[in-house]
Design a protein that fits this description.
- The chain is an alpha/beta fold.
- The protein contains 9 helices and 5 strands.
- A 5-stranded parallel β-sheet has the order 2-3-1-4-5, with helices on both faces.
- The longest helix is centred in the middle third of the chain and has 29 residues.
- It starts with a strand and ends with a helix.
Amino acid sequence: MVVIGLTGGIAAGKSTIAQELARLGAVVIDADKVGHEAYAPGTEGWQLVRDAFGEGVVAPDGTIDRRALGAIVFADPAQRDRLQAIVWPLIKRMIAERLAELRAAGTVPVAVVEAAVLLEAGWQDLVDEVWVVIVPPEVAIERLVARNGLTPEQARARLAAQLSNEERARRATVVIDNARPLDETLAQVRRLWQQLAVAGGAERAS
């Protein structure tokens, strides 16, 4: 089983690429969804986050209020580091367990770990290749304002808290430019998939 780490900055369009890979036959593990599970009510992560950040980050339904938590951690690098130290190890462990289950099943040729923080969190040892999706910062800001309801200043703060496109590209196996027309981007993904399929067939034949 080949494991692709799919990463990129916020609003780069990772989900679009992940959806195409899933359509082609990959199993996608969404680290953001795993993160929700990592601090769902009743879990160790929930307790650790509440203890660290207080009752103000707990929504009326008992879940962690991600918007309230985000307002705290994106305004203060020390608080962001604190949250990451809590949740990143939990998420990595959960992803590793799911990959182990897929390997044991022996029926999945390609798994994709879709994770915005793959490089920042040091999760490269979970994957065989790192695919980075990039868009210019101004495009990401426009998307964040339209999609997430952030102000331009808030959007810039989110981007500033992440690795630059240049740093991600230096550490990538593959760079996918998602600022191009969508059909061109998806055509690149399909070409990459075909290379994986060819390599996988050669490996099985050897």
